[in-house]
TrEMBL record:
Organism annotation: Clostridium aestuarii
The Xylose isomerase-like TIM barrel domain, residue ranges: 38-295
Source taxonomy: Bacteria, Bacillati, Bacillota, Clostridia, Eubacteriales
InterPro entries: IolE, IolE/MocC, IolE/XylAMocC-like, Xyl_isomerase-like_sf, Xyl_isomerase-like_TIM-brl
Cofactor (UniProt): Co(2+); Mn(2+); glutathione
A GO MF term: myo-inosose-2 dehydratase activity
Assigned keywords, A-Z: Cobalt, Lyase, Manganese
The reaction(s) this protein catalyses: scyllo-inosose = 3D-3,5/4-trihydroxycyclohexane-1,2-dione + H2O
Family: Belongs to the IolE/MocC family.
Record's protein name: Inosose dehydratase
Length: 299
């Protein structure tokens, strides 16, 4: 059983309204996202593009629903832009999250990503970072980790399909080059599985560096379709590649919960299982995942 005092449960707004695919849930407001998260029994949220950029407005919306912010995606561009540009943007992002009480910044290198390009096959066209690009990225991440530490915060690298760090081999390389005291990991069960890895093995290997957790499962029939038809990441999402824990058929959740428990994980578990809300009602799936986690862990 996971420790209720140390592990908190949240939802990502991408389950309702997709930042990368505006046509998915474009009509849904951030207020509905937050309200339905709270209704389903979650206490935290990550930040989506529709959320107010004004602290006072956002805090009021959160307080009305007894919700808080636990993380917000940050895009790094160390491989394609001047290092200082990413550092400057990170400081603003860090300070905004700090004001909201968040302790973690989840981030990924997006300089050469294809995950937002709907025409490129996710498996055939995924970027391969050079040794020099890995070195540049690692150096930059160590600097961001030090900047986060100034605010008693941590950064967590989010391996992600289409970004150049999606396989375990690529993650291994990056983690070997970064300071474990400064650079943690977002464990994402769905992206590990999508990439062809065993999510349990990824978690077991890096449990001591996991600072934030994303829960989603993968539908095996859709994964086969993505491979056969050479679909892009966004096409895969629209086809239903991801779903919530308790609904998919590829992640060994008992194994995941066991390792999180044994490693004394402390932090947030966030349901981030983007689907088309017109097909998969976000509230229904949030409730389904909440019930599943409660059944398995007592949380």
């Amino acid at each position: 059983m996971l420790n209720k005092d140390k592990v908190k449960l949240g939802c990502a707004p991408i389950n309702w309204t997709n930042d990368d695919l505006p046509e998915l849930g474009g009509e849904l407001t951030y207020q509905q996202c937050l309200s339905e998260m709270a209704l389903a029994g979650f206490t935290g949220s990550e930040i989506g593009n529709k959320y107010p950029k004004d602290l006072k407005t956002l805090k009021k919306a959160l307080d009305l629903r007894n919700m808080c912010i636990c993380n917000a995606w940050f895009s790094c561009f160390f491989t394609t832009k001047d290092e200082q540009e990413t550092i400057d943007e990170f400081i603003k992002h860090r300070d905004f999250l700090h004001e909201l009480g968040a302790k973690v910044v989840g981030l990924a290198e997006c300089g050469r990503t294809i995950h937002g390009n709907e025409s490129l096959s996710i498996f055939e066209k995924a970027p391969k970072l050079t040794d020099e690009e890995f070195e540049t990225l690692a150096k930059g991440l160590n600097k961001l980790g030090a900047l986060a530490k100034e605010k008693d915060m941590k950064i967590a690298y989010h391996y992600h399909m289409g970004t150049g760090v999606q396989s375990l081999k690529e993650l291994d390389k990056l983690m070997e080059m970064t300071d474990p005291e400064l650079v943690g990991i977002v464990f994402d069960a769905g992206h590990a599985t999508f990439a062809g890895e065993n999510a349990v093995e990824v978690l077991r290997k890096y449990a001591n560096r996991v600072k934030h957790v994303h829960f989603k499962d993968v539908r095996s029939n859709i994964l086969e379709k993505v491979k056969k038809e050479k679909l892009s990441f966004l096409q895969a999402v629209k086809a239903g590649i991801f779903t919530v824990p308790g609904d998919g058929d590829m992640v060994d959740w008992d194994g995941v919960f066991k390792i999180l428990d044994e490693s004394n994980y402390e932090g947030w578990i966030v349901i981030e299982a983007e689907q088309d809300p017109a097909i998969a009602d976000p509230l229904e799936y949030a409730q389904k995942s909440r019930a599943f986690i409660n059944e398995k862990t007592g949380l």
